Amino acid sequence: MDKKVITLETGWADMEAGIAKLIRFLEGDEGEVIGVEQYMHLYTTIYNMCTQKPPHDYSQQLYDRYRASFQDYISSKVLPSLREERDEQLLRALVKRWDNHKVMVRWLSRFFNYLDRYYVTRHSLNKLNVVGIVSFRDGVFVELKKAVKDAVLSLVNKEREGESVDRALLKQVLDIFVELGMGGLEAYESDFEQFLLEDTAAFYARKSAAWITDDSCPEYMVKAEEHLKRERERVKHYLHSSSEDKLLAKAEHELLKVHQTQLLDKEASGCAALLRDDKVDDLSRMYRLFSRIPDGLKPISDNFKAHVQGDGMGIVRAAEEAEKERKAGDGAGGGKKARGGPSTDQTFVKRAIELHDKYMEYVTGCFQKSQLFNKSLKDAFEVFLNKGVAGNSSAEMLATFCNTLLSKGGGEKLSDDAVEEKLEKIVRLLAYVSDKDLFGEFSRKKLARRLLFDKSANDDHERSVLAKLKQQCGAQFTSKMEGMVNDLTMARENHGDFQEFLSRKASDKLALDLTVTVLTTGYWPSYPTADLRVPKEMEAGVQLFQEYYEAKTKHRKLQWFFSLGTVQVKGFFKAKTIEMSMSSYQAALLMLFNANERLTYGEIREQLNLKEEDVSRLLHSLSCAKHKVLKKEPEGRTVGKQDVFHFNESFTDKMRRIKIPLPPMDEKKKVMEDVDKDRRYATDAAIVRIMKTRKQMQHQQLVMECMQQLQKMFKPDFKMIKKRIEDLINREYLERDKDNQQLFRYLA
After folding, report:
1. Which of 49, 222, 231, 494 has the fewest CB atoms below 10 angstroms from its CB?
2. Cβ contacts of 663 within 8 Å, gap of 6 or more
3. Range of weakest confidence among 155-169, 365-379, 629-643
4. Domain that holds residue 520
């Protein structure tokens, strides 16, 4: 039996009745929405009308009438009611109408579900829910979007001015813009966002113009930061998340970029003033704000560099003034020879450390460990740390400061941790010094004195600072100093072996206690040699150690440096016996008077076999300085070649143990000569290394690459490199091209 055919008009009449009931419900005229029985009837009606055989398959007509249902509802009910509303009321009405429309789409999509599942899919038509949304977009949104956009922007501006607005309402309205994009943001961006961004720029242009005139830099930044925070909150509460970066970029441009120069250069409150007054919180805020705009931090880092450099140069000037005053005081106090005292060096290095600590805190705190500000700090310190103070280089002053820390009785008493911390800070400062090789040579000289004269306060600190320097400057920088420390460790072990050797040779018992330190020639600084005629009391010990060492080692030759030795001598004076600590040279001279009552200058020189300058220094220390254990004729403060000397039996001192130092020698000249020589060798090696790899090179390119390799240890001089190239040509390591004098070739 054939199923009864439903005509289009008959079936549609049923559908119209259901749709009308749904509309009455949405308009509030119907108490309840469609029940289950009516819903099943409407669904079945659509099913039957879509599954009838042609020509009674009304799928296309139903699809068209589905769209027409929305259009009729919009034109008869929705638009007339919305056209009557304005501003916030329009937004509320729109939200309500959109919610109703979505309910209607949902119900009608259920009624027409079969049509959606088969006919629409087979013919690649828009899904029914899309048709419903497009109907609202084309019928309602296109007409009202300008009024809606203006109403939303009006509320946004009110909120920016401090008024309270309904954020939930704004969120609902802007969600409509997004939903009508049906998966995209075209509607939101073109119909709302671009106008929001224009309004934002205009709003902050007005605000910032007033603030920059009326407010100080910190006040301006507080307001700017607060308003940017509110913009982020605005996005969080009702704008689409994709707007955040664009919105903030507009605000930041007007608030920060436009007024950056004027803001940072404010005389009493700009960047320079904040640095001068240590306004840490304001500087942190400045960094946070300007880090968000392109190249926003460069002017601040330039200010920071100039400020740190200014403070550093202030330390240099203060140290130079202190040195001048000290020299003037020395001159007024009796015409003593003025020399750069350690106090100036100590003060300068201490203040440099304090300055670095202070501004490193700025870099890590205010400027969030920014590489840009790290570089500014580095550049500033490099400028003033490489200036030098009163003829002393920073390399020398750092080495002196380090020596004071590591020496016994070297000034203030510090805990082990405090010493380690200061050593760490010195090594950090060394990173900014261009002449690191000069620091290395001064440090090696001072380390040698500490080790040889037992002045080192702590072996662990010595090894610790070497480890820090090794990490900072490389293994080659510390290899010699590490060898020196190891030599002293070996010397202690050798001393025990030597004592055993002596105990086995009972017949050759020494009249004195002897400790010999064997040094490896390549590790230690070079010292002048002298063929001292050793007193017989000491000579036996020298010969015994020579015998012991030759038996223990093969193919090694000992060279004796008595100038580096220390001797404890007992002086039997009339008042009392005094134990005197002095150099081996001084002891050798003094022991001449065990066998001679009086000796002339010439006789002393002949018996010691030393140079005149050495003999004069020794005699001055024993007859003209604080402890006059020798008397000279004639009396005076200088030593002459015609003077006669004899033992001063009447000498006394309140102490039973005294130290008789030698007049200090100026090591600086020797260090500079050694460093210059090492630099020549390093430059030669770098040139040969480069040319061996490249085979041939242009002059300018060779010089630049050589400078690049050498600048890790010292700042190479262009003229010196040129001179070394000429020397290598003369020594036939390189040759010039016959046709191009600027081209060099390596000679294998």
Report:
1. 222
2. 617, 620, 621, 625
3. 629-643
4. 489-562
